[in-house]
Design a protein that fits this description.
Order of helices and strands: EHEHHHHHHEEEEEEEHHE
Helix content: 25-40%
Strand content: 5-15%
Largest sheet: 8 strands, mixed
Radius of gyration: 19 Å
């Protein structure tokens, strides 16, 4: 285990050794508000403005549902290792409540195409919804159409993100290897963020599901951890706040956002808005190593 969440009885013992935190948890109070605001800002004069606005409405709905129907503290303690592992966590029906609420919030202003998807999800059985959730969490994206995946993942993410608030918020970096997947839930990252402020210059990968961030050293591939053929690409200029990091070893790429160049960058929003960079990288033979919750890979 590269980054391990410390149980309560180890936190005080290790406190003196902490310098920069290897693991950061999302601030649920402003996460969705900040994301929606950034999406709307990026939508101005964007060719895909309508879709960015749609994503912003989902973020709005997530924030509203969080206030009205929060997850209660679990009765049993989480496991010390990979506490919210998508493969082992026994999720309860709360996430389906969130899906129902999301659909209700978005339905009044939905497009005709979106209404078809919402109608299908509203009529789906619990078993069908759980099966689709299992497929998404197992990264079998071809088994769940992208129109349904966006809604289901948004509900799952809202559920998982809240569960992180009940974990001990201290962790220990035990090695610098095996860091492509989230140390909390084992999902893939959306993008990496170069922080400023107290964590000046440090790279953190942002989880696509539970919204946690974990530290990984720069200048090596976040996917295969090689450092021989790392390159950085941007569309605008070398000083762009959004670039992508490519690896010539595994032929993957992952966006990298620089807070010092734009303090308003947000992992999900800026990754989604920079879709043309993904298209350019695909033409160069590089595939995304991460997942954006509003842009699922097609079959």
């Amino acid at each position: 285990m590269a980054i391990r969440i410390l149980p309560e009885n180890e936190i005080q013992k290790a406190a003196d050794s902490f310098q920069q935190p290897p693991l950061l948890f999302a601030n649920a109070k402003n996460l969705y508000e900040r994301r929606a605001k950034r999406l709307r800002s990026l939508a101005e004069n964007h060719p895909f403005a309508d879709y960015l606005e749609f994503a912003a409405k989902i973020a709005d709905a997530q924030g509203l549902i969080l206030q009205e129907n929060p997850v209660e503290k679990p009765q049993t303690a989480f496991a010390d290792v990979l506490p919210l592992n998508v493969k082992t966590l026994q999720r309860d029906a709360k996430w389906r409540e969130y899906l129902t609420a999301l659909l209700a919030e978005l339905k009044p202003n939905a497009t005709e195409q979106m209404l078809g998807t919402i109608d299908w999800l509203e009529k789906a059985s619990n078993e069908e919804l759980e099966q689709l959730a299992d497929e998404l969490l197992a990264q079998n994206y071809a088994n769940c159409s992208s129109d349904k995946a966006v809604f289901i993942w948004s509900a799952l993410s809202l559920y998982w993100q809240q569960l992180t608030q009940y974990l001990p918020h201290n962790a220990n970096m035990e090695s610098g290897e095996g860091l492509h997947h989230c140390p909390v839930c084992q999902s893939t990252p959306v993008a990496s963020v170069i922080h400023f402020g107290l964590a000046q210059g440090l790279r953190y990968l942002h989880c696509s599901l539970c919204e946690s961030e974990w530290n990984m050293v720069r200048a090596k591939c976040s996917n295969c951890e090689q450092a021989r053929e790392i390159n950085y690409w941007s569309i605008d200029s070398e000083a762009a706040a959004v670039k992508t990091e490519s690896c010539g070893d595994c032929h993957s790429h992952l966006k990298i956002l620089y807070q010092e160049k734009d303090p308003h960058v947000e992992a999900v929003a800026d990754d989604l808005a920079s879709i043309f960079l993904d298209i350019e990288m695909e033409e160069k033979g590089f595939s995304r190593s991460g997942l954006n919750p509003f842009m699922f890979p097609t079959e």
